[in-house]
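Standup notes, protein team

Yesterday: finished cleaning the Halorubrum aquaticum set.
Today: DNA binding protein Tfx C-terminal domain-containing protein structure.
Blockers: none.

Input for DNA binding protein Tfx C-terminal domain-containing protein:
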Amino acid sequence: MVADDASSAGDAGDVDDAGDVDAAELLARAGFDADASVLTERQAEVLALRERGLRQSDIADRLGTSRANVSSVEASARDNVERAKETVAFAEALSAPVRVEIPEGTDLYDAPKRVYDACDEAGVKVSQTAPDLMKTIGERAGDAVYGREVRERLLVTVAADGRIRVR
């Protein structure tokens, strides 16, 4: 959650002489590279300022624009971040040594055995107990699981190091 008060800004290196958050310093310290990022510099700047507690209206004043424009830039930035996360999840799923489809209508109690069997076949160790694995799958599946019922097809992938992803 973003605080309303800029006084909750992180370290002193984030703040300029006037007590304001220095967006350029934040981006530099975080290693932001506009050429390698899915975010524009403006989007990164707005996110950095929001994460340091500035309100959209304060950011708009600083940037010489409207609060509505800042809101739009922030929404686009957050959408781009979510798309980047989804892209990474997709790439990891493609390269994961274990991929298990859990069909719609499956009882969630049956999912751990399917995952364990596929992991055994691939020589990948899963460090979660069956109840923990069911909980992980259920939580990461979101609305695709209701109670014990898998309501939408799931793809459970397990990386070589045992990390589990649910898509």
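Follow-up from PR in the comments: Residues 23-91 form a domain with the Arc Repressor Mutant, subunit A fold (CATH 1.10.10).
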